[in-house]
Structure formats: C-alpha cells, structure tokens
Fold these 2 entries.
Entry 1:
Amino acid sequence: MATIDELKKVRLQKLKSLQDAGLLAYPAKTKRTHSIAEALKNFSKLSKSKKQVILVGRIMAMRSHGGATFLDIYDGSNPDSDKVRPRPNYGRIQALIKEDKVGEKGYKFFVHAFDIGDFVEVKGLLIKTKKGEKTIEADDYKMLAKSLLPLPEKWHGLQDTEEKLRKRYLDILFNPEVKEMINKRAVFWNSIREFLVKKGFLEVETPVLEVTTGGADAKPFVTHHNALDLDLYLRISMGELWQKRLMVAGFEKTFEIGRQFRNEGMDAEHLQDYTQMEFYWAYADYEKGMELVEELYKYIIKKTFGTLKFKVRGFNIDFSKKWEKYDYGTIVNKYAKIDVFQAPLPQMEKQMQKLGIDYDKKGFNRTRAIDNLLKYCRKNLSGPGFLFNLPIDVSPLAK
C-alpha cells in the first residue's frame, strides 16, 4: 500500500499535468447554474427541458467501465434550508463522463488527472440511467480545486478518535449525523434568539475581557493587555455582572449568547470554550423565570427536533408535560441521606466516601461537597424540572 507521501507525489504530478495543459487547477470562479439539491428537486422539469445545467461538487467516488466513468459528486446543499434534517440523497448526484461525449483526448485527460477528493464543475443534461439513477451526463468538465491528499478510505473513514477531533472537517464530510448535529445547533441557538426577542428581550454584547472574573466558580484564562500593561481574564460567565449593570441603567429585559472560557479539565462533555446564553428580567421573580424557561425550552426543542418526546438512557421523557420542581435539600436528603444545610464539612466528606463518590481533594470545600452530593443524586431524576432552594454556598448571588 502506498504511503501518504507517495500518493501526494502522484497528485502533484497530476497538478503539473493540468498546469502544462494550460488549465487552472484552482480557478477563482465557476459558472454553476444550480446547486445539486436544486437540480434534484426540479429534476423532472430540468430533464424534460433538455437544457444544460452546470453542477459543482467534490468527487466522492469514481467507477470506470470502458469508455465511461461514473462519479458521485457532493456539494452539501439542502433543498429545504429551513428544515433541520436534510434529505439523505440531496446534495449528492451521479455524474457520467463518456468518451463519445467529451472526446477521446478529453476522456483520457479526465481519467489521468482527476481523483477522488477533487472539486469539479460538470456541464451537461440531466438524465436517468437504465437503473433509474438521476445523473448529469457531461458534455464538458472543469477542475475547480485539485486535492493533493486522498480522502479517508470510503467504507472505514476515520477510525482514530483523536484524528476525528483534529480533522473535524473530514469527520463531518463522511458522517451525515455529525453534519446534522451542526445544523441542529444552528436551529437551536437561532430559536432561542427568536423566542426571547419575541418576548421583548434585548440582545446585548458585553466584554469578553474582564479586570475581575464574576458570575461563576471557575479558573479563568489570563491574558495581558499591552497598551494598559494590565493582566485581564477571559470571562467565565455570559456577562452576568455586566447585564446586571444594564438593569441598573434601565434595561428591563436583556440576554446575551456568546462564548465563555474556563481553564479547567476537558472531556467529552466539557470544553475550555463554549457557547452559553444568560438572560436578565427586571420586576420578575424566580417563579416567572421558571415559567419563561419552560416555555422557552418547549419552543426550541420543538423547533430543533420536531418533537417533544424522547427516550434517553432508558427514560421516556416528555417535555410537553408540566415540569417537575425539585427542592435541593429534599432531593439530597432522599438519595444521599444527609442534610446539606446543617451537616458540617467532615460529615459530608465521610458520607461521600461511604457512597463511593469520587472527588478532587485539591481545593475541596463545603461548596464542592454540596455540589458533588447533588451530582450523585441527580442521576435518579428523569424528565425536565427545576431545582430550587439552593444552599447559599453554591449560589451566592441567587435570591
């Protein structure tokens, strides 16, 4: 099996053959007439019109049979851009390069110079093959971008987890479920913004660099402001203190969606920087806040997933029902058998050890003990709900 360096050397030779033929391997523009999704959506009309179309995309597969080569080209387009889930066959079409259509010289040049992974432009008529597959039969073709490295092997793709994370673009290319997750993420955040704006909230942007961190218990990233010769911190909350100042300034309802940063451990559920939303609402108590949050979640879940009913880790969850309300002390007392409001720290630590709770002894304090006990208990809860009456140790700014 050829090495990556050997394969790259072959492709560099093919790149040179394009240049020697006076062709651009990376032209600045294309004359595309339709996205592949549009062509498939309007296939019957376009094929009957006998009008040539120009499609573009990446070659994902090639199969040669005598004087004909079949390609699968993919441009990632979606005919229903307002919907979360693209139809699986959209954004991908078969292309047919035939010697009797593009000429002997043109066909041989295509077979010699083009590879899986290249971006191409194909001009021709839309037809159906004998097997009924929708296809563009090429009268002409053009290189849009020569790929110098091969794509991962089609059937196995990326197997190494670390490589998947380092080369996320390839993971997305080969795994439709990853691409769908990105689409859902966009719908998720846009629906939050849409809901809050409809409710009269004003979207704001507050500083990412702060003189002092606030709004959470987390280790910040430190940077240096050269002009002021001052150490600053990347925010660890979504403008909590700034939004409270905006309330002082007379803004009744504000929210912010943005990135925040925590210089701590990372795993499959925790990153150093991530997106968060916080809203602030004057003249409203926590009960009104719970009503708003319940309505908000039902709105974004329906928008993002198209349903309010799910099965997660063996639990049947129905977001449409009235949400539960869980008292913090009651829940911990029920499952961890300890009163976090009254018990001293040594007693809580002893109970954690008895329950087999793994915890970080560095910086261990009452706040961390209470938090770890809740995390132990919450696995017993299912479905949406609100946790209230938090100890002041874990939520000093709550009323």
Entry 2:
Amino acid sequence: MYSSPTTREDRQDVLVAAIRSIQFGALVVMSPDGLSATHIPMLVRELTNGAVELEGHVARANDLWRTAQSGAPALAMFQGPQAYIHPGWFPTKKVDGKAVPSWNYIAVHAHGKLETVEDITWLRAHLSDLTDVNEAERAEPWALTDAPEDYLDAMLRAIVGLRMRVERFEGNWKLGQKQRPENRQGAIEGLASSTSTEAQEVAALMLGVLANASAR
C-alpha cells in the first residue's frame, strides 16, 4: 500500500485498535484461478508474545479455504472512515484558487499466511466471541447458546475457520497532513457539518491528528 512519510501509520497498537473497530475486511489470496477476495468479519487477537493473529470463517462452499489449506500468503484489508474533501472548504482557495478535490481516509493492511481450522470447539469459541463483541451493547444480547443445539451443530459443520498470524502491517492515515493549518481546519468544519456520519468520523480523526501535532 502506498503511503507518504506524513501519512504512514506503523504503531502496532493503533493498527490493531483500528482493525478491532472496523472488523469487516477483504481477505485476498492467490487462487489457482487468480486473485480471489472474500469479504468477512475478522477478530484480532494479541498473543502474549506480542504477535497478532486474525481469525474469521467462510462457508464450506467458498473455495478460499481450500487455497488456505496450503498455507497461502494472504492480505487482509480494512477500510476505515473515508470522505470526499471539497476544495471550497480551503480558505486559501479564495486567495489563489490553487485547490483540488481530494479524499481523506484510514486503511490497514495485514500480511501473513492463512491456515484453516475445522475443529468444532475452536469454531464454536470463535463464533461465540464474534457474536459477543457485536451484541455487547444490546439491551437483550443474542448468544450462541440461544440457538437449538442440533441447528447450531449443523451450522458449525457448514463453515471452515481461517486463522492468519500477521507477519507485516501497513497503515495509511491520510487526513490532510500536507495541507496548511487553515485548510485542515476548514475541511474539519466542512466534514463536521455534513449529514454523513462517516464524514463526521473523518473530521474527528483529523482533529486528533491536529491535537497530536500541537502536543509535539
């Protein structure tokens, strides 16, 4: 993934936190038929030795797991908040007209080798954890144990687990770092006033970048 020195993010704790928040990603492998991508939710696990693992699952009908059986190299891509940047938000445009549209976003890439997991106990724990993460804030959270055991057993046998030990991370936090302070502030105000929740999230991320820059 291309990133400039001003936008590159390589702090593992920041990248892991972003993956945990985004959760849904694209898992890309080279299959016998060429590049193959599957979009799935993934859990991120931080191991006691400092290593990081991603885990997910696919339907048994999805051929990706057969490719993963051989320990195929894989790329997991996570796209965070993103938004179009209107050049009219830049005060300098009114002075010299030198402004063009751009896009602000965050993205994380994780590289590693895939392995498949067909152990029912592992799959049950994986699905339980994935469910608990997403049901935690509900007034009446659904749990894996709410499903009839015979139904759950059939569902578990219809999927294959995937696990990837991350060998290398890439992160790009493109949030207007190259713009002059007044242009960044203008973009933040423009995004914050948008009706798009995602645009508002980008504004908050840009504020964080400004705050960190001021603290240095």
